[in-house]
Each structure stands twice: as C-alpha cells, then as structure tokens.
Amino acid sequence: MSHIKRINHVAVVVDDMEKALSFWRDALGMELHELRDVPVEKSQIAFLPLEGSEVELVMPTSDDSGIARYLAKRGPGMHHICLEVDDIAGMLAQLRTKGVRLINEEPRTSADGKKYAFIHPESTAGVLVELYEL
Ligand code: CO
Fold it and tell me: What spacing in Å lies between the alpha carbon of 27 and ligand 1's midpoint?
C-alpha cells in the first residue's frame, strides 16, 4: 500500500508575476527562492519554499500552452495541489482499482528526475491533484 507523505507544493496560476509577488513575497514576506523560465512548459515559475513544502506561482509565457488555456478559461487562481507519495506506481495502481480517473496512466519523469502524475479533478472533488515521488 502506497502512502501520502506530505503536501509537496501548491501551485497558483497567475497572469501578472510581479503583481502576484507583491502579495506572496512582499506582503506575506515569503522568500522567493527562484524565478525560473521553463520553456518546455511555456511558463515562468516562482518557487517560494516553506519548511517541507512550497508555493509555486505559474505564469504562461505563450498563448498556446495548457496553462495559458487554463488561465483564459478560468482566470488566475489555485491550479493544483501536489502530494508526495512513497511509491507513485503503487499509488496509481491503487487508484485505478478504486475507479479514480487519472490524467497520466503511468508516472512521468521530470527533467530533475522526479516521478509525477496528475489525477483528474472529476475524481477529486474538483481539485487537480499531482502526485510526486522524489
Ligand atoms: Co506541480
């Protein structure tokens, strides 16, 4: 049985990074660890780490990305919550047996070696859920 370990990060879609940072960094006082362009996802991401988790602000840098379409359709706001698991393949198998709708049937691997997969909001009370195995 695979287990959820912690909330790894929460991702928020923004349409104006500086405006978003004026709240998250300047008003709340969270540390901006890195502002990174991620060309493969056609987005810019701000990483604001906390102890054991992180807030990520995601801004599309092109109109033809998935994140840009999301922003156009729903406006800025909460995008997904990411849960860290000890065994992502095991968790996906477990979810499949429960009839949960998955976006990624198999784990994908990010550039920095993390395994991840998304679960469809239809099965999660409306929240896009990402799973991570580090
Ligand atoms: Co994420």
Answer: 23
How far does residue 46's CA lie from ligand 1's centre (Å)? 12
Distances 88 to 31, 63, 77, 93, 123 between C-alpha atoms, Å: 29, 32, 27, 9, 17
Distance in Å, CA 114 to ligand 1 centroid: 11
> Per-residue pLDDT tens for 4-49?
999 999 999 999 999 999 999 999 999 999 999 989 889 999 999 9
Give distance in angstroms: CA of 80 to centre of ligand 1: 7
Strand partners, 53: 50
Task: Give the global pTM.
Answer: 0.91
Q: Tell me: the pLDDT tens digits for 68-121?
A: 999 999 999 999 999 999 999 999 999 999 999 999 999 999 888 999 999 999
Q: Beta strand pairing status for 128-133 and 77-85? A: parallel
Where do the domains of the chain lie, and which CATH numbers do they carry?
Answer: 4-133 (3.10.180.10)
